[in-house]
Amino acid sequence: MIEVKNLQKKFGRKTVLNDVTFTAEKGEITCLIGINGVGKTTILNAITSLTSIQGGSITIDGNPRSKHIFEKVSYIPDAITMLPHMKIEEAMDFMDDFYQNWNQQRADEMIDFFKLNSTDKISTLSKGNTAKVNLLLGLALDADYVLMDEPFSGIDIFSREQIAEVFTSHLIEDRGVIITTHEISDIEHLIDKAVLLDEGKVYKEFRTEEIREEEGKSVVDVMREVYQR
Ligand SMILES: Nc1ncnc2c1ncn2[C@@H]1O[C@H](COP(=O)(O)OP(=O)(O)OP(=O)(O)O)[C@@H](O)[C@H]1O
């Protein structure tokens, strides 16, 4: 389990996260939801120690984060970090050299799944295919947890559907996933838990199935209540 407790984050004098607390379990998809600028990316950066925090704690399976965090947690940022002149196969080689937990078999499977051509250069890919390569590079790591920042952002419906399919496939297996979005419609039916952020706080954390069964509400219904109040 990833446990985020009373997280505080300031940029200069501006408080961005003010007492953020939530958990993300293995085998589940947890979605951080909130309008632009609410601090979703900052939370992922904090979990992976890419940004410092001013208070609170973050544990992974009960342990504080260490320099070996990337063996346990794979971070898929909202934009690809590979150099544009690289071919997809070169980007995969780079990952293989860099990470001990790179799984080429899973990478090859995703190349087939997304119908990508591994000799294509990253700079020549469409937005949708770039997003797929970005996803592939993160998901091919054997990590227990995967953090994904806005994987659906700015891509067409067919690519979004294909990416959504990954969430129900064995490519996610029993890993714990934290995904951020301000657009829930593509993944509403896939997520186990929603964490609604507002004004630097967790406004509501709920299991999507419970709210559906007990209150007959969708995630979007709850979002409307929270953000249009
Ligand atoms: N390096 C930085 N220096 C100063 N302010 C920053 C920095 N990074 C983020 N911020 C500010 O922190 C706030 C939260 O940013 P963050 O990117 O985490 O939001 P977000 O919810 O992921 O937004 P989006 O949906 O647009 O991606 C924003 O007001 C942003 O301007």
From TrEMBL:
Keyword Nucleotide-binding: yes
Family matches, as InterPro entries: AAA+_ATPase (IPR003593), ABC_transporter-like_ATP-bd (IPR003439), ABC_Transporter_VariousFunc (IPR051782), P-loop_NTPase (IPR027417)
GO molecular function, one term: ATP hydrolysis activity
Keywords: ATP-binding, Nucleotide-binding, Transport
Matching SMART domains: AAA
Ranges of residues in domain ABC transporter: 2-224
Highest taxon listed in the record's lineage: Bacteria
Protein name: ABC transporter ATP-binding protein
Taxonomic source organism: Halalkalibacillus sediminis
